[in-house]
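Course assignment 3, question 2. Fill in each field.
Student: A.L.
Task: Predict the tertiary structure for the chain below.
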Amino acid sequence: MTKSNKKEPKEESLVKKLWGAANKLKKNIDAAEYKHIALGLIFLKYISDAYEELREKLEKGEGEYAGADPEDKDEYKAEKIFFVPEKARWKYLQGRAKLPSIGKDIDDAMDWIEKDNESLRGVLPRGYAHEKLDKQSIGGLIDLFSTATLGTSEAKSKDLLGKVYEYFLGQFALSEGKKAGQFYTPTSVVRLLVELIEPYEGRVFDPCCGSGGMFVQSEKFVNAHSDHYKKSNGKKLALNPSDRIAIYGQESNQTTWRLCKMNLSIRTIDSSNVKWNNEGSFLNDLHKDLKADFILANPPFNDGDWSGNMLRDDARWDVLGKKLPPPVNNANYAWLMHIIYHLAPNGTAGVVLSKGSLTSQTSNEGEIRKAMIKANLVDCIVNLPPKLFLNTQIPACLWILSRSKANGTFRNRQNEILFIDARNMGFMIDRRNRDLSEKDIADIANIYHNWRNKDGSYEDIAGFCKSASIEEVEKLNFVLTPGRFVGLADEEDDFNFEEKFTSLKSELEEQMRQEEELNKSIIENILKLDI
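Answer field:
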């Protein structure tokens, strides 16, 4: 343990050193664009390192590699290593880093790698030869990343590239602000969701998967907790922890999908079922028949542009026993029903939504929430602290859904919902952003597990958590705000100035947008009149 602890700061220092230097080289490039340039080169360095390490073993031809052909692509495929053609290898590119043609060299390298590795087709970034990119900066990035060894067995054992990739994604998210919501969910929020629903084994689905953080944390969870799960449940699990979960995902933004595919590839997570189309999960559900054991999702908050008017008769709105179409101007409940539709009979889901979803009555939202509660689908609600998300100040919460609260795996929780108010947890990273500590995550997850597990030792804690009956929820008109149940005065929960101001501002902006669209529609119709 002592040895490990000494090395960790060095790895962290390397990660921050790489970011600091890379950030200086970006010059006038927008963060959203530079993200793909830097992460693409990091990925290229990783696969080249891994290729060179295996090639050296094949060339020596010792032991299990006796008689192996270093030019045989199948040798690399068998070891889950990408084959890298000669002119795409890092040594070759490093030797040309100072040439004005380096941008084209990298674009060509990406083409050759995709040609020789089917799983990377259409994934790797291009545009390094674009005239607006400073070739000296690109060369500087190559020299910079050459100082780090990312793809060797030793580096993989430390998940060094994973740490670099994750840190860079987080830093780019900070740089991009509101735009970051398309690809990034704060790691602590993802970790909390994963710790809550415990995806030990089965099909894991994210219908709006961004850069794949939910999948990465799920695999980390499996690797970290498999021994405990095996002992406590007597399960016969696959020998390789990574083989115990199957990943399914969908993403509508192609560049974000590419980030996801690279993010999963560097961890050798099978991403063949992570799909892209520009229509999205509602209009073009690419996993129509999937029934997932675990679903993790952070959909766009209060999305008013989800084409709901085209889907009024969709089968997904029948999941609650009667057809309840969600409102066309807010996708929150559309996402909830889409997720319930894809849950296996004993499945569990963790969903991040705006806090307004706990109280909203617009269109069918109140009726949908009531039907979900009466159907015993809502297992737990967690009120999150403010300022966790880089892309919005809208207050957020977690919905934990269970398809069957009496399936025997855990305690029978029918007629109960657990409420956790974690608004006061976390710590400030800077003046604008908050994060959850390891202890915060453990405390919240332990409360839920003690409440859910057969041998749990759960007790209500005034001001923090409360196990409420469906009857208690019904008395409050099926509103699910935790503060109303855990012992705080209604006023403290309902009239928090910061939360109320942000929520009202968001609602006002949405109303103004709808009014603008209505006025535009009226004008267009008037112009069409033949008068």
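Instructor remarks: Residues 1-8, 489-493 have pLDDT under 50 and may be disordered. The longest helix spans residues 497-528.
Grade: pending
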